[in-house]
Every structure is written in structure tokens, then in C-alpha cells.
Amino acid sequence: MKTMTTFIKTNPGPNSSASEVAANRVATCFGMNHGGGIFRRVLCGLMVGSALFTGGCAMNDAPQNKTSLEIQAYQSRSFEVDKKTAFNSAMSVFQDLGYIVNSANLDTGFITAESPTKGAKGNEAFLSFLAGMRVEGRTAVTAFIEELSSKSAKIRLNFVERKKFSGDYGQQANRDDPIQDPKIYQSAFEKISDAIFIRSAQK
User: Fold this and answer.
1) What DSSP letter does each residue of the chain carry, written as one string?
2) Residue closest to 51 by CA, chosen among 28, 95, 18, 4
3) More exposed terminus of the chain, fewer Cβ within 10 Å: N or C?
4) Given this model, what pLDDT does residue 5 score?
5) Bridge partners, residue 146, by sequence
6) Which carries the bigger pLDDT value, residue 94 or residue 117?
């Protein structure tokens, strides 16, 4: 009796992105002409889930290399307003953006909120479709409002992208990626600044 062994081999280039590596694996996997279709689909699901999980983390970490002081610089901003006004303005902006506020405490200054669950988009959604996996994602945010004086407060934001991968055969994976794009924080602070201006004008 002859035993047939099928090897899955990927040859990404040295500069290949994580998505290209995942696509290469999917193409190779679906190119197998021998063996059961169900086994092949499960194997592809596990491979793509692993590629998206580890690849996504690599893409998130690679361009960063920021110090804690640099991160604090774009995650924080001070406003010439009392703590309550800053707190209420931040919470109203989250709600205007469609976030669901999970908790808010003026005394501690903490606000936690999450966006509604959404499906994956783009290349990640395509790869997940090929592998028979479902990808659900949402953005979580925490805000800490600190009173500097009776007329000054500092707000620090922290956005995290949360994704859940699940397959037809029980495979699951979760991934939390800190969002470290300064433009995201700049946009959020601009909206909070506008909300503060409106609230202050109404007093």
C-alpha cells in the first residue's frame, strides 16, 4: 500500500505582508487535490485564523516603536474647563459616535464604552470567507478625566480594536490590538473640544 503525503509549503518573500502570507497559505491549501474537503476546510480555517491573529499583531507592533511618553503625548490633552464639563463632554461624544457606554463614574473619572459589533472588511474578510470563518470586531475606548484644578482638567483616551474569530467547526480566537494612530486621537479630541465649547457657551 502506498502512502501519499501532501505537504503545505508557503514561500513568502522577505518583504511580504501578513495578509500576503495568509493569502499564500489559503491558495496553497485550496490547491490540494487529494484528501477530504471537510478536513481541508478545517485546516484552512485554523491556518487563516492563526495568520490573521499573529499577522495582525505583527502589523500593529511593527510601525510603532513608541515610548510611553510619546504614547501619552497623543493620548492625552488638557482643557481649560472643570472636570465635570470635560467628563460630560467626553461621554456625549462617545454616544454621538455610536458607542455604547458600559460604565461612567465622575468621582473616579473613568468612562468605558464600546462600538457596536461589525463584520470584517477588505482583505481580512475575504480570507476569512475562504476559510469558512466569521470575524466580528468592535472598538473599545476608555477615558480617564483627571482634575488638574478647579478650572482645568486632563483627558486621556485609549482605543483598542477587539476582534473575535469563529469557525464552523468550533475554532475560535480573540485578539485585542491597541490603536496607536495619533490621527485617531487627534480627531477624538477635536470633537471633545467642540463639545466642551458648546457646553461652556450654554452656561
Assistant:
1) -------------TT--HHHHHHHHHHHHHT--SS-HHHHHHHHHHHHHHHHHHHHHHHHHTTT---HHHHHHHHEEEESS-HHHHHHHHHHHHHHTT-EEEEEETTTTEEEEEPPPEE--HHHHHHHHHTTEEEEEEEEEEEEEEEEETTEEEEEEEEEEEEEEEETTS-EEEEEEE---HHHHHHHHHHHHHHHHHHHHH-
2) 18
3) N
4) 43
5) 154
6) 94
Cell triple for 53: 491573529
With cell 462600538, the residue in question is: 115
Q: Is residue 130 within 8 Å of 26, Cβ to Cβ?
A: yes
Percent of residues, the chain, with pLDDT higher than 70: 56
pLDDT of 37-51, one tens digit each? 544 444 444 444 554
Q: What angle do CA 135, 137, 143 make, to 5 degrees?
A: 165
Q: How many angstroms separate the CA atoms of 136 and 70, rounded? A: 30
Residues in the chain: 203
Task: State the amino acid at position 108 in one-letter form.
Answer: T
What residue type is assigned to position 150 of the chain? S
CA 102 vs CA 47, 96, 99: distances in Å: 34, 15, 9
